[in-house]
Design a protein that fits this description.
This protein is an alpha/beta fold. The chain is about 35% helix and about 25% strand. Strand 1, helix 1 and strand 2 form a beta-alpha-beta unit. The protein is globular.
């Protein structure tokens, strides 16, 4: 029997990919209904998703949705609303898939995790790069010690300059600007390899000469670990294609993902990763079949809530990621 999802919030762009995968795997998943506070957003998503899932109903209130027969809830609203939605779902007794980042207040997220633990419910963050082929290989190499002691992690995750005005409007409530929006993806990977940073130093700037204001459009943060540095860059001034890049350097090797991909947008069928091991003649390029985004997140969630496996990412990891992101965004 497919697991029955409800969706609180329909605003986030990643929700489109989730809905596509639910529609494509009806034997595994079912979307019972949704709720969205903004009428124009609800109308737009209903129109677009109606072709995939014409039976999905949009409810007038979250409470009405949560009175339906649901096994779990996906939270895909605006970032500042999502922890409230997550709390409502958890208090109703449903596990949650929570869109990134985990709200804007660390204490509130800690309370959500505490609620999960008290009610023995799962909350899984939706960081959609986690299950990309090259990311999985990078994490495997680092965790298995094949790169030796990792002493440097560097990532850049830019957004296109053409989207500048849209993001200024969407992110106006968040002091971290585009850095807060994007950096969590790669902080998630960095913490998976190096653990919780000891110190965080943000460098957040407004560098678009023709756009007045203080919107953070070019952010960098340095992260200090016991035996390593992390550097993360997130601008929204990018015009060069294929420039999302991750580099991991260790005492016995290194790996580079030369282009991470475009998140919820179409990706190439092959995702390369470049690897060097001490003693090799040079760098080797490994071409990995690209995985469809979102489906692995959904299947991971189902396996965990069904008791078939432990989660790939524990609560402590997610708390450390969120704290590092908020510190780097000057929001804590």
């Amino acid at each position: 029997m497919p697991i029955r999802f409800g969706m609180l919030g329909m605003w986030h762009s990643h929700a489109n990919g989730i809905v596509r995968e639910i529609a494509a795997h009806r034997q595994e998943f079912r979307l019972v209904g949704c709720y969205e506070a903004e009428a124009d957003v609800a109308a737009d998503r209903s129109r677009r998703w109606g072709e995939l899932l014409p039976e999905v109903h949009v409810f007038d209130t979250p409470e009405e949705l949560l009175r339906q027969e649901l096994d779990a809830v996906i939270v895909e609203g605006r970032v500042h609303d999502n922890l409230r939605y997550a709390r409502m779902a958890l208090e109703s007794g449903r596990p949650v898939m929570l869109e990134k980042p985990a709200g804007t207040d660390q204490r509130e997220f800690e309370e959500i995790i505490d609620l999960c633990q008290r009610k023995h419910l799962h909350c899984q963050m939706i960081y959609l790069f986690r299950y990309m082929s090259a990311v999985q290989e990078m994490l495997r190499l680092a965790r298995k010690g094949e790169l030796g002691d990792v002493y440097f992690f560097r990532a850049r995750l830019p957004k296109d300059l053409h989207d500048y005005d849209r993001f200024v409007d969407e992110l106006k409530l968040y002091p971290g600007g585009i850095f807060f929006e994007m950096a969590g993806h790669v902080i998630d990977m960095m913490v998976a390899i190096l653990g919780k940073p000891k110190e965080v130093t943000p460098l957040l700037g407004h560098h678009h000469r023709d756009k007045p204001g203080d919107f953070v459009d070019n952010g960098i943060a340095a992260f200090q670990f016991d035996h390593a540095w992390g550097i993360i860059e997130a601008p929204i001034l990018e015009v060069a294609p294929h420039s999302r890049r991750i580099e991991v350097f260790g005492t016995e090797g290194a790996c580079v993902i030369p282009h991470l991909g475009s998140g919820h947008l179409p990706n190439k069928n092959i995702q390369p990763i470049e690897v060097y091991r001490q003693g090799d003649d040079g760098w080797k390029t490994i071409e990995l079949p690209a995985k469809t985004l979102h489906i692995s997140d959904l299947r991971e969630f189902i396996a965990v809530v069904s008791g078939l496996k432990a989660p790939d990412y524990e609560f402590e990891h997610d708390l450390n990621v969120q704290e590092a992101l908020l510190r780097a965004s000057r929001m804590i």
